[in-house]
Specification:
Layout: H1 10-18, H2 54-57, H3 61-68, E1 78-79, H4 90-113, H5 115-130, E2 137-140, H6 143-152, E3 162-166, H7 171-183, E4 187-191, E5 196-197, H8 199-212, E6 216-222, H9 234-243, E7 247-252, E8 270-274, E9 286-290, H10 323-327, H11 329-339, H12 341-359, E10 365-370, E11 380-384, H13 390-402, E12 406-407, E13 409-411, E14 419-422, H14 430-442
Parallel strand pairs: 1-12, 3-4, 3-6, 5-10, 6-7, 7-8
Antiparallel strand pairs: 2-9, 8-9, 10-11, 11-14, 13-14
Bound molecules: pyridoxal-5'-phosphate.
């Protein structure tokens, strides 16, 4: 966890909002009131006590209660399913509404003349936040678009080559990897990871798979699993893979913002990201990362031309998109950085530990995912001991919702069976997590 700015100050949030007024409309008379942001007055921004570590701040309920006031929260249910997509904070939502109004007012006059310049600004913002260069980032609609394009357009699969994925990978990406292998008459192998694992066990299992399949050419590597939040040692696995000539496509859909990291911490050439999960952008924003000099093996999107194979943007064909979502990227990143990526990660870890530490003393509960802190994050899963079928998980999800007022989601991709995923957000309180703990105890 790097030492990030821990300052959630009024000044920073004003900066967040200020990003909205920065559209590139140049013609005089067109920048009217609807493009100006003015949503600052009724929001109270909490101050972080000086010298407090992210881990100590994570336990400060009064601080996080103030942060929660910066979000609209549904009443009547404890929602512990925030792995689907994130929530915009109120300042980001204001930015999005203003951007929507502006685009809807200016229409093609804005889009034809100025949108490209604003897309560039948003791209630079994403690149800076990830520690990448702007030309290494392409904005997409979601991580699926980013990763599907990488898999589909991978062109280096030859005779007797094998592709690899694991049971903890995202279901749609496993299928796309399988499709890639079948469509080129090559072999795909699925490696099974244990229901709970630590970093060394994961490295050992990947290494064994590399030994067992010497013709491996391409692998999918997920930073944080959507099944149970297991964190994979991406940099170490990618290094071993590189030494053996195996290309890596990294799925960071769930990790960016849930964990605090830069692209160089991963050591991969290609990765897909979401901003609409933990960065808190509007829905419909993802990113594709392609390291400079790594484009050779990924074809341009069909019909796109890139004579020198050096232009990452030719790997995606976006067409008409939600202009306002793209325009809101700087505001979302500014807000995320104002809270502090390290503070967010620590708060989410703390909320997870509130229930996993209790669950460890419940013999009827099996916790899945990371065996240690390094392999874990805020997202985690559980099931009733021995209850691994889809029906078991459906029944448990319904009981949690209807009997205990706790909303969760079932996951069914693991080889070990189905489970219930628990994903708090930073605006979830310790008291709400206790409602889950009470429910888990009552499930005995
Ligand atoms: C690990 C992982 N990969 C990929 C995806 C796909 O994300 P999206 O639907 O935003 O493209 C998700 C979504 O939950 C995910 O958790």
């Amino acid at each position: 966890m790097s030492k990030e700015s821990k300052v959630l100050s009024r000044r920073n949030v004003l900066k967040t909002l200020g990003a909205v007024g920065a559209y590139s409309i140049t013609a005089s008379g067109l920048t009217h009131a609807s493009t100006q942001i003015n949503a600052t007055n009724d929001v109270n921004f909490p101050k972080i006590p000086a010298g407090l570590s992210p881990e100590l701040l994570a336990q400060d309920e009064s601080f996080w209660a103030k942060v929660a006031q910066l979000y609209d929260k549904a009443q009547g249910i404890v929602n512990l399913e925030h792995g689907y997509w994130g929530k915009m904070s109120l300042p980001v939502q204001s930015s999005f509404i203003e951007a929507t109004k502006m685009v809807n007012t200016q229409l093609s006059f804005y889009a034809r003349k100025s949108y490209n310049k604003d897309t560039e600004k948003s791209t630079i913002k994403v690149a800076e936040a990830l520690g990448a260069q702007a030309e290494e980032i392409v904005l997409t609609r979601n991580a699926t678009e980013s990763v599907h394009n990488l898999i589909r357009q991978y062109k280096d699969l030859g005779e007797n080559d094998t592709v690899l994925f694991t049971d903890i990978d995202y279901p749609s990406f496993k299928e796309t990897m399988q499709w890639l292998a079948s469509s080129r008459n090559q072999k795909a192998v699925e490696v099974v990871l244990p229901a709970q694992a630590n970093q060394q066990q994961i490295i050992d299992l990947y290494t064994q798979a590399f030994d067992k399949h010497p013709n491996l050419k391409l692998m999918l590597l997920t930073h944080v699993s959507n099944q149970h939040g297991l964190v994979l040692p991406v940099k170490k696995i990618a290094k071993i893979a590189k030494q053996r000539g195996i290309d890596v496509i990294c799925d960071c859909a769930q990790s960016w913002g849930l964990l605090n990291f830069k692209i160089t911490d991963l050591g991969v050439d290609w990765a897909g990201f979401n901003l609409h999960k933990w960065i808190g952008s509007p829905v419909g924003v993802g990113a594709l990362y392609m390291k400079k000099g790594s484009l050779e093996k990924i074809s341009p999107y069909p019909g796109e031309h890139d004579a020198n194979n050096t232009n990452a943007s030719t790997r995606v064909h976006t067409a008409t998109t939600n202009f306002a979502s793209i325009l809101t990227i700087p505001a979302a990143i500014n807000f995320h950085q104002s809270i502090g990526p390290a503070n967010k990660e620590a708060r989410l870890r703390h909320l997870r530990s509130l229930w996993t530490s209790e669950a460890k003393n419940m013999p009827h509960i099996e916790v899945l995912g990371g065996l240690d802190e390094e392999s874990s994050t805020g997202m985690c899963s559980f099931r009733l001991q021995g209850k691994t079928s889809l029906d078991d998980a459906k029944h448990l999800q319904k009981r949690l919702e209807n009997q205990f007022g706790v909303f969760t989601v079932l996951r069914k991709g693991l080889a070990s069976g189905c489970c219930i995923r628990i994903t708090p957000q930073i605006f979830i309180s310790a008291t709400e997590v206790q409602q889950l703990v009470k429910a888990m105890k009552a499930l005995a």
